[in-house]
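From the thread on structure requests for the teaching lab: each student submitted one protein with a one-line request. Submission from student K.M.:

"Model Rhodanese-like domain-containing protein from Candidatus Vagococcus giribetii, tokens only."
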Amino acid sequence: MFSLFSKIPSVSTKELETRLDKKIVLLDVRTPAEFKGGHIPQAINKPLNKMNTYQGKEKEVYLICQSGMRSKKAAKTLKNKGYDVINVRGGMSQWSGTIKRGK
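Reply posted by the TA:
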């Protein structure tokens, strides 16, 4: 079981950018409206309030939100479900790479 004291691994937005060519799973936990406003092209929108229903087949999942707080909560939820999670520090507010608008 996940304890409050176990650390969630994290990467910077720059580190994330170097990993995107490796076919990683990146979940954007912001609201659908925030997601449509601009997101990383490979990201899949899975809002924080729906995280407990996530059933991806991959073991390793990267999580991003606007600032890093919601993705940290989402990481705890998924870690409890047995996923290896990596939080993206700073979130979209720190992202300087390509952004896609719309769905």
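TA comment: The helical segments are 13-19, 32-37, 69-80, 91-94. Residues 13 and 94 are 6 Å apart (CA to CA).
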